[in-house]
What does this fold into?
Amino acid sequence: MTGNDKGKGTGTRLASAGRKPDWTGTPSNPGSVVNPPVWRASTHLYDDVAALREGGKSNADGHFYYGRRGAPTQWALAEALTELEPGAAGTLLYPSGVAAIAGALLALIKPGDHVLMADNVYEPSRNIGRGLLTNIGVQTDFFDPLDLDGFSDRFTPKTRVVLLEAPGSLTMEVPDIPAFAAIAREKEAISLIDNTWASPLGFPALERGCDIAIMSLTKHVGGHSDLMMGSVSAGESLYRRLRRTYHQLGQVVSPDDAALALRGLRTLQVRLERATASALEIAGWLATRPEVAKVLCPMLPGSPGHEIWARTFSGGCGLFSFILKGRTEDARARFIDALDLFGIGYSWGGFESLVVPFDPADARSATSWPPAGMAPTDRLGIRLSVGLEEPKDLIADLDQAFSAMEAV
Ligand SMILES: *Cc1c(COP(=O)(O)O)cnc(C)c1O
It folds into this structure.
């Protein structure tokens, strides 16, 4: 099972990742069940005092020690994520995606350092830069994620860390991540990417030049809208560094949530493929609608960033946005309220479709909205997370909601 999968296809690797026989059985019957049991364990017991003392000396992963270091349920999930991220030596699990981003940043910076964040990062990441990092004497500057030529000039001698995200939260622009990561490396800064949208299936981030890959497992990996978790994967030396801070911060995830995330992971590829195909169909339909100024879907030919996506990514997902042509906030609310199959709520990547309104201009500081070529009145965004429903039913739902929007 585990370990022999190099070179095998993604589905094959997803089916076996993390299933070490020691973790899915007993010493006399290793590997005797498919999934690791849910190990609810704070105390780990030792045979005698000598074993207790010996146990304290080993700091390795996958050894019983104390509940904060996890047990086979969490180890199996971390190991599976590591196996799915080519170039990773280990993965740390955090209680949310935001905890993963904050935990990784805290492990890498000290007072006086300088951090660069892409202007399209997830808003709570921006808040970490503006808040937590500022409070500990770290300056964060935001850069235009589409201005590759100007990127080198944004570094100072104190720049240690660059936080990237692709596509951008809400506005979905696609930075050329391998090119940005290469410049960061040249400048001896560590590049982190929030890779929640594509996952390693659509963008093997370490292989494509990033140093650290972060995901909110709450989204695609969980996939069923019933858990919160985040992950950070890295190569050997950075993994060691991240892990020290992780332990000092006392981070750990519950075994129940780890088991759910592991269950979600097994079907990640089929869910992503289905959601991507549906999203593409729906995005294409939206692009033909007179009520829509712009569809922001990297997988859709003609959409901003499509070429970079096609060149640098190997997969998509069900999350994309569109901008209403003109219209008022009331009209947008009528449209969203009229939707029947799209739940109104945050998060995404679940089996069920979701919708949220957003105002792109509010979430940017280094760049402005609307970009060149779009009318200033085209400023009301709608983000869809397309789930596993039949696309024709979702299109019919959107169609009737457009009618409801115009019927006043
Ligand atoms: C949701 C999200 C996060 C945060 O994840 P939580 O698990 O909700 O804390 C981080 N990055 C992106 C891109 C997200 O969409």
